[in-house]
Structure formats: C-alpha cells, structure tokens
Amino acid sequence: MVRDLRSRDWPEVARIYAEGIATGNATFETEVPSSEAWDEGHLREHRFVSEEDGRVAGWIALAPVSRRPCYEGVAEVSVYVTEGARGKGIGSELLAALVESAERGGIWTLQTSVFPENEPSLALLRRFGFRTVGIRERIGKLHGVWRDTVLVERRSEVVI
C-alpha cells in the first residue's frame, strides 16, 4: 500500500536510508541526516511510503534541483526499499505514485544520479521512461574512492 509519508514514519525512513547507505551503491551520503534536514530538503507534497504488513518497506521523495524559479518544475528523485522487500515491486509502486504526483504538481522533469553498479535502480527507472543523459565520471569520492554516476531524466509528456 502506497500512502503519503508522515512525520511519524521518520524512524523507518531513516532505517531504510541507512540500509541504502551501507550498501555503498545507493548514495554518496555516509550518514542519515537529521529528520529536520531531510524534511527541509524535500518537497512536502511529493513524499510517499509503501507499507508491507503494517511496516514501512520503502520510501520515495522529490527534492528541488534549484531554488531558481526557472527550475521549479525540475526535481530529483530518491527511492529506497528495505533489503527484505526488494524485488517485490515496491519500487515500481512508489515510482508510479511519484510520477503521477509530480505531473499533477506541474513538475516537467524528474532526474537522479545513480551509481552504474546499481543496475536494479537503473532498470526500475528505465521502466518508467527515464533515459540516460550521460555518465558523470569521477564526480565524487565515497570512502576515498572516485565514483561515477549515471545521470538519468524523465521528461513529462503531460506537463509541457
């Protein structure tokens, strides 16, 4: 079941985020931010969780790519699914809800950067119409190692 993310979901969201960080292939982040910092960095109307057996099994949210007015319709996607629930379609359910919400909210471009080693995430995004824009070579270091990212985007055919 996909529903809006609520403030009381933060402990589960943080736990799932920490699992993603621990993989070394989900994010450049090395620590889960505070709930306040995370809340401030994400668009309130575009945050969802998926529940499985009464527990949060995954979350998805949008962050603005810029505060400049010309980019108000461009947002960055973050999606995380707890380890035990991966491969069950939760990512697809979350991304479907987010795409619909984004288009309803006037967002014309969704984008994200994914480590090339994170093939499951890239495959999920491709299924939803994301295309590779390019490879950002040696864009940042994680634990002292240079990492590449694949920049992908989805342009809305509804919001034009």
**Class by SSE composition:** alpha+beta
Total beta strand runs: 7
Secondary structure: helix percent: 25-40%
- Radius of gyration, whole Å: 15 Å
Largest sheet: 7 strands, mixed
Stretches where pLDDT falls below 50 for ≥5 residues? none
Identify the strand order in the major beta sheet.
1-2-3-4-5-7-6
How widely separated are the two ends?
30 Å
Give a summary of the structure in a few sentences.
The protein has 4 helices and 7 strands, in the order βααβββαβαββ. The chain has helices at 10-23, 35-41, 90-104, 119-127, and strands at 2-4, 47-52, 55-64, 74-81, 109-114, 131-142, 145-155.
Report what the structure shows:
It is a single chain. The protein is of the alpha+beta class and 160 residues long. It is built from 4 helices and 7 strands; from the N terminus they run βααβββαβαββ. Helix 3 links the parallel strand 4 and strand 5. The model has no long low-confidence stretch (mean pLDDT 97).
What descriptors fit this protein?
single chain, 160 residues, alpha+beta, seven-stranded mixed sheet, 28% helix, 35% strand, globular
SSE map:
Layout: E1 2-4, H1 10-23, H2 35-41, E2 47-52, E3 55-64, E4 74-81, H3 90-104, E5 109-114, H4 119-127, E6 131-142, E7 145-155
